[in-house]
């Protein structure tokens, strides 16, 4: 595979435009953002690695994509590898990653317990270390709790700084939903936000997708967000 493959793969996988540090609701996760900022701004004189773990809706994927956006803004190269989508491919997706400044591997659980993938990931660690690159991994749990068969990989996963992402409670989800609405230029009354939270998806990704749908619907209909309009636009009975 040619050296350009990681950049091409990043384009084919794609990053969400709204996955940035600015719109990440960081209550309880301030230390994580500070550490990520320090990691991304540090001089590239040594290998830097961080493991972020938490529930599926804890913002793991958001932060990895935000790190890629920040790296691109600094004029550097990165790749976002969502293993939930790429696990069906072969391990060549890990080739030549040492030529990039930042490698973000999301949902690593999807390839653990598979010998070829574990060996390939072990080799990624070694190549990125040898080239003083940055590696950011997300998982469902801390390194010691992951189902890793290859002892050398288990050791590598425990190398770096590990952060548990704080899950949002309902009040924090409301705040995050209203913050995202403001960023989209939407007026989201408290009672409408509460209705969306209790009637729709509980996951933040689902809530934000609902908000995007309502944004388009309200612009098209030239109507404000009210509970009757939300019910009509989303087909909720």
From TrEMBL:
In the record, biological process GO terms are: DNA replication initiation; negative regulation of DNA-templated DNA replication initiation
**Domain Chromosomal replication initiator protein DnaA ATPAse intervals:** 16-162
Against InterPro entries, the record matches this protein to: DnaA_dom, Hda, Hda_lid, P-loop_NTPase
Residues in domain Hda lid?
170-234
Reading the lineage from the top rank, the first entry is Bacteria
Q: Which Gene3D superfamilies match?
A: 1.10.8.60, P-loop containing nucleotide triphosphate hydrolases (3.40.50.300)
Q: Which Pfam families match?
A: Bac_DnaA, Hda_lid
| Protein name in UniProt | DnaA regulatory inactivator Hda
């Amino acid at each position: 595979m040619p050296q350009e493959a990681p950049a091409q793969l990043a384009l084919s996988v794609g990053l969400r435009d709204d996955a940035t540090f600015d719109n990440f609701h960081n209550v309880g996760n301030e230390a994580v953002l500070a550490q990520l900022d320090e990691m991304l701004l540090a001089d590239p004189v040594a290998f830097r690695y961080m493991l972020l773990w938490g529930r599926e809706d804890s913002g793991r994927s958001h932060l990895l994509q935000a790190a890629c956006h920040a790296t691109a803004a600094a004029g550097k190269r990165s790749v976002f590898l969502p293993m939930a989508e790429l696990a069906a491919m072969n391990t060549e997706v890990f080739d030549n990653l040492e030529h990039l400044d930042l490698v973000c591997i999301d949902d690593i659980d999807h390839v653990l317990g598979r010998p070829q993938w574990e060996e390939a990931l072990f080799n990624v660690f070694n190549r990125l270390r040898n080239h003083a690159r940055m590696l950011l991994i997300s998982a469902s749990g801390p390194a010691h709790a992951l189902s890793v068969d290859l002892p050398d990989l288990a050791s590598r996963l425990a190398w770096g700084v590990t952060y548990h992402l704080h899950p949002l409670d309902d009040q924090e989800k409301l705040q995050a939903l209203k913050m995202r609405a403001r960023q989209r230029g939407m007026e989201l009354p408290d009672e409408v936000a509460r209705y969306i939270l209790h009637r729709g998806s509980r996951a933040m990704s689902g809530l934000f997708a609902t908000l995007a749908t309502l944004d388009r619907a309200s612009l098209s209909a030239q109507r404000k967000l009210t509970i009757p309009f939300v019910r009509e636009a989303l087909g909720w009975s």
